[in-house]
Amino acid sequence: MSIEHLKNRLPDYAKDLKLNLSTLAAEPCLSEQQRAGTFVATALASRNAEVIQAVTAEFAAALSPEALNAARAAASIMAMNNVYYRFTHLASSPDYRSLPAKLRMNVIGKPGVDRKDFELWSLAVSAINGCGMCIDSHEKVLREAGMTAEQIQAAVRIASVVHAVAATLDGAAADAALAAAA
């Protein structure tokens, strides 16, 4: 499986996604590790097995074992953090914002790769999961580390397209199931 496989599986109405996948797979403003890790982390966040398999097959070879593990860890830890911090942000009671999280997040302090790359992957996953508090936090760290708005935007563009591909494939599968049942 590969990005080409995903592009071939997308219905004609998703032509823009096909084009965006091709463009973003070679996004020049990110390093190879940043780009590949963003694809892997956001594929995991998409929760679509076909997308995860194709993206991992396409990009895992561009990552060291440590970087691949860190991209996976970013998706994993943000799956937890995005729910928790979105709750604390959205809950009407301010009590939750002052309570300690009491959740282990050691990987954030020691991700096994350049912290900037891990933060970028965490931000991209947070964009998919819709946690504004986490987006703001990771974006601030990235800007302080010297990343440009264009680099951060590139990671979020990857996240948006990977998520859209997963949603489109899920929708196409549901359409096919309805047609088969009729």
Which terms would index this structure?
single chain; 182 residues; mainly alpha; AhpD-like
Description:
The protein has a single domain, classed as AhpD-like (Up-down Bundle). The chain is globular. It has 182 residues and is mainly alpha-helical.
Entry summary:
It contains ten helices and no strands. With 182 residues, the chain is mainly α.
CATH fold name: AhpD-like
What would you give as the CATH superfamily? AhpD-like
Output the helix-strand order: HHHHHHHHHH
- Share of residues in helices: over 70%
**Rg estimate, integer Å:** 17 Å
Measured between the Cα atoms of the first and last residue, the distance is 31 Å
The biggest sheet, with number of strands, parallel, antiparallel or mixed sense and barrel status, is: none
Tell me which CATH architecture applies here: Up-down Bundle
Structural class: mainly alpha
Number of separate domains: 1
- Reading off the top of the CATH hierarchy, the class is best stated as Mainly Alpha
Morphology: globular
Q: Work out the helix count.
A: 10
The proportion of residues in beta strands is under 5%
| Model regions low in confidence, pLDDT < 50 over at least 5 residues | none
Question: What is the strand and helix layout of this fold?
Answer:
Elements: H1 3-9, H2 15-25, H3 32-46, H4 49-59, H5 65-90, H6 95-98, H7 106-109, H8 115-129, H9 132-144, H10 149-181
